[in-house]
Amino acid sequence: xxxxxxxxxxxxxxxxxxxxxxxxxxxxxxxxxxxxxxxxxxxxxxxxxxxxxxxxxxxxxxxxxxxxxxxxxxxxxxxxxxxxxxxxxxxxxxxxxxxxxxxxxxxxxxxxxxxxxxxxxxxxxxxxxxxxxxxxxxxxxxxxxxxxxxxxxxxxxxxxxxxxxxxxxxxxxxxxxxxxxxxxxxxxxxxxxxxxxxxxxxxxxxxxxxxxxxxxxxxxxxxxxxxxxxxxxxxxxxxxxxxxxxxxxxxxxxxxxxxxxxxxxxxxxxxxxxxxxxxxxxxxxxxxxxxxxxxxxxxxxxxxxxxxxxxxxxxxxxxxxxxxxxxxxxxxxxxxxxxxxxxxxxxxxxx
Length: 351
Hints:
Layout: H1 54-67, H2 72-79, H3 86-93, H4 102-110, H5 113-125, H6 127-137, H7 141-152, E1 161-162, H8 163-173, H9 177-192, E2 202-203, H10 216-222, H11 238-251, E3 261-265, E4 281-282, H12 283-289, E5 292-293, E6 305-309, E7 318-321, H13 323-331, H14 335-349
Antiparallel strand pairs: 1-2, 3-5, 3-7, 4-6, 6-7
């Protein structure tokens, strides 16, 4: 997260999602000086980061990284010829022109026939690897493959931006300077430890990296060396990438074998506007209230806790979500993302 990274519809960042951090406020504009200054002048307002010369900014980052133990050789390679990327700033500031409905997002973006078909193929082709990952991390393999599919189209679209360039640009530009500066320092430590070469460290415009789209700080905490070659290579090692996704889910409380949720038919009189989407109740309570399976059959009574989940900008579809849906949303928080990943995982497992 992963996570991470910005999809048009509340999809990945990611895991930037987002990037997984609150935006820091833009520095306040300094007010004009009064005609007659007061007896005591107020303290000087710090210079906004974005007003600094980029070269001076890099000098400061290099010094901070050296104090943290990053080698001079790594810094020389990472910052050689580095300039801010204006395209990164444009993407960071741009507002989405279109907000899709849940149905458009589900059918046109996330659950396309090609994504489902490719997911089933990868699920079958990597069955032995996924069994080993499940044995170690206790995460159902279909959700690992689903995350892989929605984040980078099964590793085929991991982003074309240099991660150091993107993070340095965002840390210098100033809108979320503190967050991206810490991610930049984490990326430099990753390079210094030899997990990836600077020229291969590529990702999204927001710095999400590799096949799982981990931000550098998530990489440090959650990426794993599953193939045993001494590097945590989420770019080119499928074993490391998929096991890192599984480790992310394990660390956030995934319950092996439990469903994430399912579509339901609500009882007569159900009002989405007045629905309680916060309370957790056992399935038997929902069965008593008249909720039924999507095919119209009776809802199996049980003790597994669930909540009512309504897609944003939806047109009537209703779900009951369990604990594992909340775990999926730790990877990327929008409810539509979580539902789409869950539905894709179900379709992949039906291969």
